[in-house]
Amino acid sequence: MTLYSRLGLSDFEYSQIVKRLKREPNELETYLFSAMWSEHCGYKHSKNYIKNFPKTNSVCPDENSGGIEIGSHIIFFKAESHNHPSAVEPFQGAATGIGGIIRDILTLGARPIALMDSLKFGNLDNGRNKYLLEGVVSGISFYGNCIGVPTIGGETNFDNCFSSNPLVNVLAIGIANKQKIVKSIARENCIILLLGSSTGRDGIHGASFASKEMEDKQEDKLSVQIADPFMKKNVIEASLEILNLEGIIAAQDCGAAGILSSTSEMGYKGKCAIELYLDKVHLREKDMQPWEIMLSESQERMIFAVKPEVKDKVFKIAEKYCIQISEIGKTTKGRDYNLYWDGKLLSSTPLEVLNNCVAYELNAEEPAYIKIQKNKILKENDLSAKDILELLKSPDISNKKYIFSQYDHTVGNRTVLKPSKSSVSALRVKEENTFIAFTMDSDFRKVYLNPFEGAKCIVYESFRNMTAAGFIPDGITDCLNFANPEKNETAYAFVKSVEGITRACKELNIPVVSGNVSFYNETDETSVYPCPVIGMMGRVNKNILKNSVSDDEYIYLLGKEISLNSHAGGSFYQKLFYDFLGGEIDVIDSAIEKKISNAILDLIEKNLITACNDVSKGGIFISLFEILYNSDIGFKGSLTNGIKSQKLLFGEITGRYIISSKTDIENELKGYNIPFKMLGKSKKDTLEFDGFSFKIKELFEIYKNAFETELKN
Amino acid sequence: MKAGIVVFPGTNCGRDTYEACRFLGWNAEYIWHNKSTLKDYDVIFLPGGFSYGDYIRAGCLAKFSPVMTAIREFIYSEKGMVAGICNGFQILCESGLLEGALTYNLNNKFICDDIELYFEGEEICLPVAHKEGRYIKPKDTVINDLIFLKYKRNPNGSDDDIAGLYDKKRKILALMPHPERAVFKETGNTDGIKIFNFIQKELNL
Q1: How many angstroms separate the CA of residue B167 from the nearest CA in chain A?
Q2: A606 to chain B, minimum CA–CA distance in Å?
Q3: Is A205 a catalytic residue?
Q4: Single pTM value for the model
């Protein structure tokens, strides 16, 4: 086997490298290309598609993270996956996942102010899945808490397709002064500084490891990086001080493919040459080979290109925080990437070739499964009280306090809507005297059944989350988690999902400010459902709605009513009760979505409603239940018109909300010209509808404790 | 009121404490941990966070920082008070400036929650966020008179529901909850102001 194929490059890719270099790469260069042309760094199967995402109104969309302008500040936010490492070593994998995404925000000069996470595991009846969940959660807790960045919310879902392929997606949020942003574009005549941890052999090949299907776990363990949040905290504070100096030209974090990727991108974007002296890099282990130094993914390292005259100031800051720093190279005139050892030139490659990996077209024909699944029909049993309890107990639905109480969600004094209290998590932007909100959403079953419409559904669910708390969307970031893109089913789902997200964003007039693609989430046995995860940012319209319902309030459904003929494919109850996935999913009607959203924002502004929740997983029942739980109140009314139908109570269709008002607002609602229906009234102690009656105390206890009970079982 | 806020490598609640002090109209400034002499302050805060990454044990390494020598002198000179919050409480116990010790929560997990407390004859609510917050009282000393803050429903297994206490001379005060996170009305809770006012009252200022 040749070196290049051992490193994951195909014959075609290698021939392209030879053609563009006009020679064979030497051994070191083959290593460089294997990393830079890996899926993880090169986006070779995705870049032809994600380039179509709308970017209008985003700031720095071509940087490590894009952002949104709020007054004289920029809110940077980006989601990233750390799936493969977390599958092998959940604690370190999740912890370093946070480390990585924090650096993407930090490198622009933004102080990280919050984290969120979207986690997917196999069902909890399996011990290994419990172990993975506990490991991931404690990894996030260990790292996020220590660096003093609050984890303010997220989502956790379960399906056996994630048993061998857990998904760990982390969203980081940061704030920077508009005038103080540092980009990753180098200029000539700078010196290149490496700040942070010493470089070791950990994480070598991380980039190419994340670019293949999972196989040999023992060998893969060596590709997982080790987290050091204390070092990170110091790197954050030191970097922010450094980035605030005059004369800092460019900054990059060392993520995938470490020093190689960070320095070469900097030079490529800045149209200058890079010279690196590898013998100057501070090392953790003796006798490291040049290629190991270049590819190491040791954590907590930053690269700065600075004017020579600020070097002393930068070194002083490093000394204050007891962090190592080395001058490892410089930028010069030219367009090449030159690596030296003790003055001897080891490699010289054009940055243009190194940074422009091949791009593939995907086979996006509709695969056969789409029609087969669509035509499946579910025969449901009559709705019973047992169904309601079973749904409340399911790990997807039940309260996740067990998870989020392990995360510090209040450090930083910005958190105004805490995890699970509302449809969004919200922060105050004290610098601008306003509020912003974030959500993370996914809906892999609907995306599987109909990738285009399913992906749209996710963006609109986030939009509804924003509306329900009084926020207007500003932009999204996405984590696109898919299986092997060389297979038709995945290729189709990926291309259509990207189109769906693009369409939804254009309809809502918001940009995709940043994102990440994770392919090869599969093993020999299983592959994941196509799982795009959307992270949305919004800003407050006028005021925040904090859900609080008292006794004897009027509770309404806004949006269309579900019927026995509605398309409710991909609904969670069908999976839970029947292990069924099929049928058609309900599609978005953009005009009515916007109309209802505007109505709700108006109601919030006029202080006419006391609570609002969008209807998503678990249908109107769960949407109403979440409101009642957070207000410690019951309900009396009708949810299914007296029909004992699971579909009517739990079915998931688009464009719906539940609201509560202290007064009868029927006339106001009529004025908005939107579909609505009064469901009933809030009531102390009991939950009564359509022939069912529950003591709320008992339901709330089940909902509150089920998750931990399931884990400890 | 003039407050000094000590910052160790890994301290992450220094900014929150600083902002809370400023919001309440106090003068406040940061003190980097390598300072071995101190200016005059009415109160010196040891804020929350993970000083030195909480390596070995929470607070274990911070006690060797030069600033701790200066803080001992500040305490002996009775110039003002020292207030430890969360990690600050842990550092004060590790340094032997307060009796007792803080160890892992009974459930061995980090706990972040809003907790009800008994304080000065009333019930208040403050955020907690810690993994090593279970207070173990000294075996041979009676400390009942020194307790000023108790949990209503003990979250971490602390002896006698202790959430905050003084030293014998009432010149050191420490608590596990985070009053600095409950000052701004936008966050939905301003009970933390009561703790800041309490410190001011203790100083007769």
Answers
A1: 27
A2: 19
A3: no
A4: 0.95
User: Any chain A CB within 8 A of the CB of B16?
Assistant: yes
Q: What percent of chain A stands above pLDDT 70?
A: 97
CATH number at A305 reads: 3.90.650.10
8 Å CB contact of B12 and A404: no
Which residue in chain B is spatially nearest to A416 when comparing CA positions? B187
Q: Which residues of B are catalytic?
A: 86, 178, 180
State the Cα angle at A430 between A150 and A183, rounded to 5°: 75
Instruction: Give yes or no for residue A56 having a pLDDT over 80.
Output: yes
The last residue of one of the domains, among A303, A321, A354, is A354
Q: How far is B143 from chain A (nearest CA, A)?
A: 30
**CA A21 from chain center: how many Å?**
37
Judged by CB atoms closer than 8 Å, whether chains meet at A148 and B127 is answered as: no
Residue of B nearest to A435 (CA): B186
Rounded alpha-carbon distances, angstroms, from residue B174 to A23, B4, B102, B171: 69, 15, 12, 10
Which of B114, B186, B190 is the best residue to mutate to test the A interface, defined by the most A CB atoms within 10 Å of its own CB? B186
pLDDT of A221 over the 90 cut: no
pLDDT digits (tens, 9 = 90+) for A407-438: 999 999 999 999 988 999 999 999 999 999 99
User: Is the predicted pLDDT of residue A236 greater than 90, yes or no?
Assistant: yes
Nearest-angstrom CA–CA distance, B110 and A410: 13
A276: nearest Cα among A160, A186, A383, A409: A186
A405 chain-B contacts, CB cut-off 8 A? 109-113
Q: Do B112 and A321 touch (CB under 8 A)?
A: no
| Sheet with A73-81, edge to edge strand ranges | A67-70, A73-81, A167-177, A111-121, A151-158
Contact yes or no for B16 and A230 at CB 8 A: no
Which of residues A311, A339, A354 is at a domain's end? A354
Q: How far is CA A547 from CA A384, A472, A541, A634, A645, in A?
A: 29, 18, 16, 14, 28
Q: For residue A306, give every residue at least 6 positions away whose Cβ sits within 8 Å of its Cβ, in sequence order, or none.
A: A190, A191, A193, A245, A247, A248, A249, A314
Mean pLDDT score across all residues of chain A: 94
First to last CA, chain B: 7
Residue A527: name the closest of A40, A122, A219, A157 by CA.
Answer: A122
**pLDDT class of A207 with cuts at 50, 70, 90:** low
Looking at residue A640, its pLDDT comes to: 96
Which one is predicted more confidently, B58 or A205?
B58
Examine the pLDDT at A220 and tell me if it is beyond 60. no
Would residue A436 count as lying in a domain?
no
Domains in chain B, CATH or no CATH each = 2-202 (3.40.50.880)
Residue pairs spanning A and B at CB distance below 8 A: 88
Is A383 domain-assigned?
no
CB contact, 8 Å: B192 with chain A? no
Average pLDDT over residues A57-81: 95
A408 contacts in chain B (CB < 8 Å): 110, 112, 129
Looking at CA atoms only, how far is residue B172 from chain A in angstroms? 24
Inside any domain, residue A337? yes
Q: What is the pLDDT of residue A215?
A: 52
Please tell me which residue of chain B has the smallest CA distance to A405: B112
Nearest CA in chain B to A419: B113
What is the rounded average pLDDT of the residues A61-76?
95
Residue numbers of the domain that contains A623:
546-713
What is residue A111's predicted lDDT score, i.e. its pLDDT? Answer: 97
**Predicted confidence (pLDDT) per residue in A664-689, tens digit:** 999 999 999 999 999 999 999 999 99
Asked if the structure places residue A138 within a domain, the reply is yes
| Confidence class for position B129, pLDDT limits 50, 70, 90 | very high
Would you call B62 an interface residue with chain A, using a CB distance cutoff of 8 Å? no
Q: Are B112 and A230 an interchain contact pair (Cβ–Cβ within 8 Å)? A: no
Q: Give me A227's structure tokens.
A: 């987290």
Count of structural domains, chain A: 2
- The pLDDT tens digits of the residues spanning A115-156 come to 999 999 999 999 999 999 999 999 999 999 999 999 999 999
